[in-house]
Each structure stands twice: as C-alpha cells, then as structure tokens.
Amino acid sequence: MPDTLSVAPLGPEILGGNDVSSFTQISNKIIESTIEIFTDMVMMEISVAGEPLLELAPLKRSITGMVGLAGVYRGVLAVHFPKQVALEVTGSFLGMEVDEINDDVQDAIGEIANMLGGNLKTILSDRGKDIHLSLPSTIYGEEYAFTSQADAEQIILPFQAPAGVFYVEVELER
Amino acid sequence: MAKNVLLVDDSSTMRKIISRSLRQAGLDFGEIYEASDGQEALALLEKETIDIVLSDINMPNMNGIEFLREKANRPAIKDIPVFMISTETGDDIIGEAKSLGAIGSLKKPFTPDKVNEILGPIM
Questions:
Q1: Does A9 have pLDDT greater than 70?
Q2: Which residues contact B121 (CB under 8 A, 6 or more apart)?
Q3: How many folded domains does chain A comprise?
Q4: Are the beta carbons of B12 and A104 separated by less than 8 Å?
Q5: Fewest beta carbons less than 10 Å away: which of A12, A104, A122, A152?
Q6: Between residues A114 and B90, the one the model is more confident about
C-alpha cells in the first residue's frame, strides 16, 4: 500500500467557486442519505458525531471506499472506516461474523460508497444527467493519507457507529 | 408457481442483501442464480430456466444498459423480464433502461417492505 493516496478531482470549475450554501445543502442531504443507508440496509443505528471537518489526519488501520464523479460535476466521495468499525459494519450488513479485512469487507465498504455516490449524483443533478459515477474501489492499510492534489471544495462528515466514529468525505472540484 | 430469479450485481454484498430482502419480504421465489456482470447474466439466461432478472446498472465488463441491449438481440431470452435495482435513479438512465425493455426500477438503498411493494406484483 502507498503511504499517501492522492486523489485528483477530475475537471474544471464547479459549484460556482466558494458556494458555501450549496455545499451545506449537499452536506445535509449526504447526512440524510448516510443515515438512511445504515438504517435500511446495514441494519445499524448511527448518528452525526459533531461538526463537519475540513481535513482528516492520516488514517490509521483503516479502510476507505470511494467512487469518482465525472462530467459536469467532478470529484470524489469517500467513506473512511477504522478497521473495527468496518468489521462491525460489514458484519451487520451481511449478517455474519467478520474478524479480518477480507473481500467481503472491501466489497461491503465499496458498496456503501457506491450507494452514497449514487445519492450524491442525484443531489447534484435531479435527473442524474451528465454525471458519471465510477465503479467503487477500496484501499486499506496501517497508515495512509487521503488528500486532494487539486483545488477542491471538501467536507468531511463524522458519524458515530456503535464501534466508533467513521467519516464520509465529499470533494468537488472548484 | 415460484419464479426463478437471476441477480446481476458486481457486488457480492449486494447480491446477498437482495436475496435476504426477497426472503424477508415474504416473496415466493424458486432458485436464485447470481451473476456479477451482464456477460455472466447472458450466459446464465441461455443455460438455465430463469423467470425474472433483477439487475444493477453500474457494473464492469458489461453494464446493465449494455446487458439489456444485448439481451434484446437474442430471441431465446429477449422476453425474460428485467427489473433494475441500482443507485442510478436519474430519469435519463432509467428511461434508457425502460426503452430497452426494463419493466421497472428499485433504488438502493431499500427496505424489505419496499422490495415487497415494488417486486411483489411481478413475483
């Protein structure tokens, strides 16, 4: 695993530059979507764990699932889970015991990112037009940083699960 | 008579969740077959007796739209109904799926109650 993962958002200006109100609306809808996904499909109660963050410290013993957006909106949606939280989430999602990061965990975390990415696409464009969603991918490791190379609007939403805090990150190119 | 179902999704997690939701929704179905993309789905449709397909859209190798297009060109399987289950909810992509023969769509995430409400009438 690389020590640092650089994520380059994929294109030109979006969101009208520093459109804070738009980004706040996106954040609120992502919070709703995250809680809906966990309640309806993961079968786990979660809650918002404080104010949004603008950056994350390097992630330790974690797994990140992500999808990219391309087209009229360009960026990335990522979910960052500490290992123990990822194991608990996958166990609840699949209804089985999971004690290591394996294919099931990677697939489950990738699918959570995929569902959130689909919702983000709908949030950004009601008809889903002209926005393309990549297939989900995952990374995990002892320590890695998730950073943007380009000038991007970014927000990180913390959530409390029974086993700990996890983060949903939205990064959209300015 | 219980219908045999083909689940098409690149996520093994999602295939398990859909299977579980069908059971929890109390729907009457026979065998459940699984494919991880459109190509695998086409091969299974030509080999097995399958009554309905529940398919994702965003998949590697052959996505759900390409699958519908290819299936429509194969006389032996073209009339097997396909229902889309996807995070993709935009009018354009769902509209394209329906124009290619999809009979409906269900948005992820979903609950067993929603599965029952949407899929019950066609199962």
A1: no
A2: none
A3: 1
A4: yes
A5: A12
A6: A114
Query: What range defines the domain where residue B90 resides?
Result: 3-122
Q: For residue A7, is pLDDT > 50?
A: no
For chain A, give the percent of residues with pLDDT over 90: 68
The model carries a pTM of 0.89
User: Which chain B residues are within 8 Å of A90, Cβ to Cβ?
Assistant: 13
| Tokens 């609840």 found at | A92
Interface contact B87-A133, CB threshold 8 A: yes
Query: How many domains in chain B?
Result: 1
Domain extent for A89: 4-173
Please report the DSSP string for A16-64 in residue order.
TSS-HHHHHHHHHHHHHHHHHHIIIII----EE-SS-BS--PPEEEEEE
The answer to whether the peptide bond before residue B109 is cis (omega within 30 degrees of 0) is yes
The Cα of A50 is separated from the nearest Cα of chain B by a number of Å equal to: 25
Residue B20 belongs to a domain with what CATH number? 3.40.50.2300
Give the chain B residue whose CA is nearest to the CA of A89: B13
